[in-house]
Specification:
Layout (H helix, E strand, L loop, with lengths): L1 E15 L3 E4 L4 E6 L6 E2 L4 E5 L2 H17 L5 H33 L5 H51 L2 E3 L4 E6 L6 E2 L4 E6 L4 E8 L11 E6 L7 E13 L4 E8 L11 E14 L1 E3 L8 E4 L4 E3 L1 E5 L3 E6 L7 E2 L4
Antiparallel strand pairs: 1-10, 1-14, 2-9, 3-5, 3-8, 4-7, 5-6, 7-9, 10-13, 11-12, 11-14, 12-13, 15-19, 16-17, 16-20, 18-19
Helix pairs in contact: 1-3, 2-3
Length: about 325
């Protein structure tokens, strides 16, 4: 009596954790590559720069416009408007004083009606002029504040656009591959670099469509790699893709290592067995002794029908039809 595990075979590759291809947001000519393959990077580390003369000029122009529109740079306009308010206030106050005097004289039957009306008209005009000066000052202040805010926002946009010409890392990890060199023309669809985590790796396995219904998250995976002959590493199924690759008739299954090799690299090929179920004590016979998956031959040549249970690539469990004492022979022997 021995243990046996039923499993599904899958081939695949290793992928770095957080692995991604980096693309630029803009097209142009690569001016400078600032890292080398194998370099460790952090979030925000510059990877490469794209020629951006026009963008730089736009940024400088936006900075000039922002400085010119700054409220502190336009205090002279505000002071001039305030001086006009003060002048109109004094004129209005003087016209009011003259009107008050003329009304007193009129009450004393001194002066003419026309003179009084002229004083009243002068006061109304200076009052209107004063209110207009106040309104012009308030409007000027709003316009200057709006222009300053607008130019600051344009400067931020220009700075953001200039930043698009520097490709930066999105992760803390390693630069595994650089696809382009300085002087090459690129578009936003051109892959520029491959980055990923140097410590954590995941498995991408291809499972045949005939077996995919047996695969579920959490199942144990036994992994072998050519780089580590004779060693078996373990993983757990994390994700089962619901979409079949129609060209290969396989499904993508992802798994995380629970026992990971000490050194790994992206795209290393692996072979894996996804364990469906395990039985610690089972009556096993070699699969080569089976005839039509249901019959075996005893040592005396007698054919015996058996019921089989779990199977792997070498052994099969006998559920009924044999005892541990039965001796068997291979077909054709």
């Amino acid at each position: 009596m021995s243990s046996i595990s039923e499993s599904v075979y899958a081939a695949g590759t290793v992928k770095s954790g957080q692995q991604y291809q980096a693309f630029a947001k803009v097209g142009g000519i690569i001016r400078e590559v600032q890292v080398r393959e194998g370099d460790s990077v952090k979030v925000g580390t510059p990877l490469l720069a794209i020629a951006s003369e026009v963008s730089q000029l736009n940024q400088e122009n936006a900075a000039l416009a922002a400085r010119n529109a700054d409220i502190r740079a336009n205090q002279s306009q505000l002071r001039e408007a305030q001086a006009q308010i003060a002048l109109q206030r004094r004129t209005m106050q003087n016209d009011l004083l003259q009107l008050t005097r003329q009304r007193r004289l009129w009450q004393q039957a001194i002066g003419t009606r026309q003179t009084l009306e002229q004083r009243e008209l002068a006061y109304e005009q200076s009052k209107t002029a004063y209110e207009s000066a106040l309104l012009r000052y308030q409007n000027l202040k709003k316009e200057l504040a709006f222009a300053a805010a607008q130019t600051r926002k344009n400067l931020q946009i220009a700075q953001q656009q200039a930043g698009d010409f520097i490709l930066r890392s999105k992760i803390n990890g390693v630069v595994y591959k650089l696809y382009q060199e300085p002087g090459e023309a690129i578009t936003p669809q051109t892959p520029l670099a491959l980055l990923g985590d140097a410590q954590q790796f995941v498995l991408e396995l291809q499972v045949d469509e005939s077996d995919i219904v047996k695969i579920k998250p959490g199942q144990k995976v036994l992994v072998t790699l050519d780089a580590y002959p004779g060693q078996v590493f373990t993983a757990r199924v994390t994700t089962v893709s619901p979409m079949m690759n129609t060209s290969s008739r396989t499904f993508l299954v992802e798994a995380d290592f629970t026992k990971q090799p000490p050194v790994l690299y992206p795209f290393v090929s692996v072979e894996a067995n996804i364990v469906l179920q395990t039985k610690a004590r089972a009556l096993l016979i070699p699969r080569r002794l089976l005839v039509n998956d249901s019959t075996v031959l005893k040592s005396d040549g007698q054919a015996v029908r058996i019921k089989i249970g779990l199977r792997d690539y070498q052994m099969v469990e006998v559920v009924a039809g044999l005892t541990p004492d039965d001796e068997l022979q291979a077909p054709g022997s």
